[in-house]
């Protein structure tokens, strides 16, 4: 155990989050996403897991240690609902609340069409699958920076 580190963040997850650089992306997926086959095509090349938690719980843990990119570009994306791209199902509403909490202000997610999401996922640094079993529990995050203390 480590102090002040969410226990959902296992050693493999912490390694990947630390190894990512500014502008790298990560995918957090639900149980229906083709996580393993997509993960094999990412920079890391293997699937990471945060089992037995919802997407919102996993994202809360991730955002407790990983900064999102600046407001100059979108840094949190969500898989759009097929046929209803502006709909936000409950799983996405829960994740939006965690993003807003981590950022300390509203930071709306942008939508990514389902098949475009798959293509973006292949370009990500890594894929982290969760225990989320609701549809559309798939998200893309862009890593930001932590500025020096005296800036």
UniProtKB/TrEMBL annotation:
Keywords, A to Z, come to: Isomerase
The catalytic activity, as recorded, is: alpha-L-fucose = beta-L-fucose; beta-D-ribopyranose = beta-D-ribofuranose
State if Isomerase is listed as a keyword: yes
* Source domain of life: Bacteria
**Is Nucleus among this UniProt entry's keywords?**
no
Q: Supply the PANTHER family for this chain.
A: FUCOSE MUTAROTASE
Q: Which named protein is this?
A: Fucose-binding protein
